Amino acid sequence: MSDAQRHATPDIVITDVAPRDGLQNQAVAISTDAKVELIRLLARAGVRSVEATSFVSPKAVPQMADAADVVQRAAAQCPDLRLSTLVPNLKGLERAHSAGATEIAVVLSATETMNQRNINMGLDAATDVSEQTLVRARELGLRTRAYVAVAFDCPFEGPVDLDTVLRLACRMRDAGAEEIVIADTIGAAAPAAVKSRMAALAQALDPGTLAVHLHDTRGLGVANAWAALEAGVRRFDASVGGIGGCPFAPGAAGNLATEDLVLMAEQCGLRTGISLDGLLDAVTFAESLLDRPLGGRSIAWLRRQQNPRGKSCT
Ligand code: COA
Ligand code: ZN
């Protein structure tokens, strides 16, 4: 990819959530150095937005206990990168702000039980806390995102009403969320539902502020991303190597892999500004951290392009 291509305004914006959604669920403890290096490799590949960490209770998610160090060091190393941080409440916001974070994401699930399991409060309390956190974040001058999690299917309560998702998304927007991220947290959605639900949301909200966060549990991640594109969505979360899964949502497998999304988008003529070779370097690094093979559906083909004379398996 030439410098001109890399610096052109992308047609789609991808937030790589591997350092947060990808790492939060890993059994092996990852060092702060390694997290910062993963973020640096993503930035070097041309990724412009990364969800770096979460300011949650270290008792709930020990892997994210070094959130402040990750933010400070990643910001120093990658000054042009948008670094988002997930915060579940005002205490998380306070910690993120003291660490110098410039962007936060609140996480509101669309069902009673998922909020209880994830952040230990019911839907009404979680909605209030998310609103208060967004309002305060805007007062502090931070950029804001709001997740509406389990926006298609909940692992505890089953299919989720469109009306509920619309209502919560509008409340997050009205409280000041600049980006509303509709999340298929357990990867249960299919393209028809993604297209119709995202189209309905795009009508109710400013489509430019709408993002989709997909998991590839059933192998439908790329098809779902295409369905979202057809509904007018241009902002996507994805995770390099397809790493991911929520510790509080049973059955959630990895996220849609960033390399799969970039490959699909570029082959369809949509510029991402992201280098696939650069992403492969990040996948290889993540494999060394987690000590297992990673990568989305396209990984074997992508590696063959990178190394056409490499040995093939028999
Ligand atoms: N960061 C660090 N500590 C926090 C915190 C935060 N954002 N919010 C609360 N705490 C601390 C409190 O200070 C208190 O500490 P203490 O025991 O030393 O006094 C303790 O956690 C309990 O506080 P409480 O408000 O009762 O929280 P809780 O036990 O009900 O837990 C959450 C609520 C939101 C903090 C917890 O469920 C959580 O961190 N969930 C994160 C889930 C997650 O990351 N999911 C994946 C991403 S979607
Ligand atoms: Zn997720």
Layout of SSEs?
Elements: H1 3-7, E1 13-16, H2 18-22, H3 32-45, E2 49-54, H4 67-77, E3 82-86, H5 90-98, E4 103-109, H6 112-119, H7 123-139, E5 143-149, E6 153-154, E7 158-159, H8 162-174, E8 179-183, H9 191-204, E9 210-213, H10 221-230, E10 235-238, H11 258-267, H12 276-290, H13 299-306
Helix pairs in contact: 3-4, 3-12, 8-9, 9-10
The structure holds coenzyme A and zinc ion.
Coenzyme A binds at residues 24, 54-57, 60-61, 86, 88-89, 91-92, 95, 107, 118-120, 246, 248.
Which ions and ligands are bound to the chains? Answer: coenzyme A, zinc ion
Categorize the overall geometry: globular
- Main beta sheet: strand number and arrangement? 8 strands, parallel, barrel
State the helix count. Answer: 13
Strand order of the largest sheet: 1-2-3-4-5-8-9-10
User: How many DSSP E strands?
Assistant: 10
**N-end to C-end Cα span:** 32 Å
The rounded Rg comes to 18 Å
GO molecular function: hydroxymethylglutaryl-CoA lyase activity; metal ion binding
Pfam families: HMGL-like
Keywords: Lyase, Metal-binding
InterPro entries: Aldolase_TIM, HMGL, PYR_CT
